[in-house]
Amino acid sequence: MSAGSARFAMFLIVVLTVWTAMHAYVWWRLAASSAVTAVVPSRVLLALFAGLWLAYPLGRIFAHRDVTVVGYPLEVAGAAWMGALFLLVMAMVAADVVYLLLRLGTALLARPETGDLTGGFRPHGPAAVLALALATVGLVQGLRAPAVSRREVALPGLPAERDGTVLVAVSDLHLGTLLGERWWQRRVAQIEAERPDLVAVVGDLVDGNAEHVERMVPALQRLRAPLGVWAVTGNHEYYAGLDHSVRVLEDAGFAVLRDRWQEAAPGLIVAGVDDATARRQFAPQGASSAGLPASALELALSGRPPGATVLLSHTPWAVEKAAQLGAGLMLSGHTHDGQIWPFNYLVALQYPFVGGAYEVGGMRLIVGRGTGTWGPPLRLWKRSEILRITLRSGG
Known about the structure:
The protein is α/β, with parallel strands linked by helices. Helices cover about 45% and strands about 15% of the residues.
């Protein structure tokens, strides 16, 4: 087994461990609540959690093997449950904090007339109801069409005749079994309605199975723009098989930028790099863990003709280096802006540029929150997003 494969196997082990721990914790807290067990007996609750634990992994396995009759409903149910489980964990932790504070207050006061400040009340049942209500809101939000976020960016070096050029960017589409051809066709209609001059696909168009997306190539080919459709790889293109995923993108008619640049029009350069997150995960043993090597950015940005440069990089890392090398606008995704609040605070620990627009070293960075969803089909509180960027000269 290669070093990259070993690290990925370790990643899967960690994910399954966390998945198991989350189920065990929520079950433990709910099983200790008399308000919950009065409605759902403990044994039934245990069997329910065991089934929910299995749903998503089994759904993914069946879907990967094209057993859609069983796999699709399991994957849908498991994915929705994944989002609900995260909110339940957050709610249970908050309930534990409240309960412990009440118990601490009782211990500190220690007066008979005060009594137990908890009054025998455990807040875990109401917390579970609140979490499931939020999950319902998130599911409705996640199923809505992506919002179109409109921005203007002044690009140094952009010729006057290119002023007003419209760039539409999408990222994190995660096409596959959950988000399929019909969903994609609706996104193409949304993009076309914005009348783009060029389109950027900023990684993770493929979810986990390149074969599923390969069947959608005729539908992918519908996406066109006068100055081209430009794409870079995301970490999921690596997971699905990098060569196969790149071939699917190229068959769709997209210009795939792998550590290189190309002139979309005189004075407007589009550059792109392979994904930094995947590079770090699949790097050979002993290699730098910095993610995106400086050499990749240098390859992508060196030797450019005069003009303005738009850099596509799925993961928003090495931002300062990109600015130093002369990119005027950097477009990224990957973070989903947390996708489900309050997960965005955890994401920000590893990805400081978690979502929105930033100014770094004179360069504008825009991190899209994703056009699709990954895992849970939930969004709380921000909808999925398509970026419509009007480029202005004279920046």
